[in-house]
């Protein structure tokens, strides 16, 4: 892993990053750390789609090179569409910032650090951009809704 400087960012992007960092701090998803700690840090990336919605995501590609893939099955779109076509009822539940519902082991927090113009932060909860986050989240949902899945629910 590397100790990288923050990516250059426009004033507008910096303001968006500030908004997301402050939100993460308010929700206890991350915490600011001192500059004197020896750290391996990643750089945050602001992902924007359809020029409407954005999300802060760490650039954890260097970490992914050392991460063993979690092969937990995630529902495939064709299978989901087939089940939806035959459904009698359809509803939606939004798990607000679902990945952030999962805690991070203390010894892993040092690997989940990001740097920006505001300083260095580490995640105490699962961030977006981690290789195994989708599999981990699906496993959590399957565990929580175990009985409902047996009844035929799709999670």
Automatic annotation (TrEMBL):
Pfam families: RVT_1 (PF00078). Residues 56-147 form the Reverse transcriptase domain. InterPro entries: DNA/RNA_pol_sf, Rev_trsase/Diguanyl_cyclase, RNA-dir_DNA_polymerase, RT_dom. Gene3D superfamilies: 3.30.70.270, HIV Type 1 Reverse Transcriptase, subunit A, domain 1. This is Reverse transcriptase domain-containing protein. The lineage of its organism: Eukaryota, Fungi, Dikarya, Basidiomycota, Pucciniomycotina.
